[in-house]
């Protein structure tokens, strides 16, 4: 890797750890503050998160199921025996 690559990697991790440290120092009173951002997120942010979470693994599972691989259904159970 070139020097520029290493600089980009170092800056990335510096920003990552800086943001994590700042977030860790923020006061949290309840579980809602920690897990649900104090219930101050817009509906579109929550929807985008759910959408992104769902599209990550579904296409892969469908492809495996189409090819006849076991574990294409829910919970690792073959789709034809899932109940």
Secondary-structure blueprint of this entry?
Blueprint: H1 3-25, H2 31-35, H3 43-66
Distinctive features:
83 residues, 3 helices, mainly alpha, single chain
Description:
This protein is mainly α. It has 2 domains: 1-34; 41-72. Helices cover 63% and strands 0% of the residues. It has helices at 3-25, 31-35, 43-66. The longest helix has 24 residues, at 43-66. It is flat and about 50 Å long. 1% of the residues are buried.
Structural class based on helices, strands and sheet pairing? mainly alpha
The ordered H/E elements are HHH
Question: How does the major sheet shape up?
Answer: none
Oligomerization: single chain
Number of strands: 0
What is the total domain count?
Answer: 2
- Shape designation: flat
Give the radius of gyration: 20 Å
Short description:
The chain is an all-alpha fold and about 80 residues long.
């Amino acid at each position: 890797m070139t020097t520029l690559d290493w600089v980009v990697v170092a800056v990335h991790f510096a920003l990552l750890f800086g943001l994590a440290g700042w977030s860790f120092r923020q006061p949290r009173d309840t579980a809602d503050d920690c897990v649900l951002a104090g219930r101050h997120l817009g509906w579109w942010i929550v929807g985008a998160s759910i959408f992104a979470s769902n599209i990550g693994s579904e296409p892969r599972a469908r492809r495996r199921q189409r090819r006849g691989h076991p574990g294409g259904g829910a919970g690792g159970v073959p789709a034809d025996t899932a109940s």
